[in-house]
């Protein structure tokens, strides 16, 4: 009986793989759980519960495209493992089979929750353009290519006006987040059709290649009016497949020339008019002469005054000297 049980464990799980069992750690977790049952009958019952749970997991996956990406599978596995370990640490007081049904159903709800989010927002995030991505098939547990065509059926994702001034710069960036998950190796191809954008319908021959780069953006510096035009960015594979295309309508406004201020000319006076034009420089020479004359007069006046003071001083000192000489002679 034990040999039959072991054979069923080895054969049952691979035959009924679904998204949650595509991870090897989850399969081993379930196998250990079956073998931990207290009796052979309990092991058989729990194995049957696991088998039925795998069927429900498969049905849940099938209702949601039947595919999953590695990131979503990692989230499902992590959350389910956390719930399962919490279940194992709990003191079981009821039926082991009933509690096994509960934890397996918990796994189905976790898978359902994450698949709903992935299918709605993550499987085909391209609102336009062609997306080829790598996903896991929930039945074979093998990776495959999943194609997300453009909802509009075209790879052209619109026109965007860009305005700049002459001498300035413009940044053209055609990156979208879903470009990271493209399966193929891709490059950004930039091309340009000169002329005022929107004036005429352009053909493929009107575009001139600018640059092929791994970067999604280009910077146009020191712009001239002649550089305005229709710029196109295409995300292409190495085999020429166009996955995404966007157009930038670049308009370069010329810098206005500086305005020259007019020179105001005063009208000339009529002939015979008694009015004269006043020139301040005409007063400069008389003013200098007057200042010089006043300076000389002050100097002369000071000289005369100083001379008179010195004469008066000599007149007062002479009698005193005579008296001093007379007294000196008398003394001798």
From TrEMBL:
Annotated GO biological process: fusion of sperm to egg plasma membrane involved in single fertilization; sperm-egg recognition
TM segment ranges: 283-306
Its GO CC terms are:
acrosomal membrane; plasma membrane
Pfam families, per the entry: IZUMO (PF15005), Izumo-Ig (PF16706)
Signal peptide from the UniProt entry = 1-18
Q: Name one GO molecular function term.
A: signaling receptor binding
Task: Answer whether the UniProt record assigns the keyword Signal to this protein.
Answer: yes
Compositionally biased residues, Basic and acidic residues: 314-332
Specify where the region named Disordered lies, as residue ranges: 313-332
What InterPro entries has UniProt attached to this entry? Ig-like_dom (IPR007110), Ig-like_dom_sf (IPR036179), IZUMO (IPR029389), Izumo-Ig (IPR032699), IZUMO1 (IPR032700)
What does the UniProt keyword field contain? Membrane, Signal, Transmembrane, Transmembrane helix
Domain spans labelled Ig-like: 149-243
The entry sums up its family as follows:
Belongs to the Izumo family.
What name goes with this protein?
A: Ig-like domain-containing protein
Species the sequence originates in:
Champsocephalus esox (pike icefish)
Q: What is the lineage of its organism?
A: Eukaryota, Metazoa, Chordata, Craniata, Vertebrata
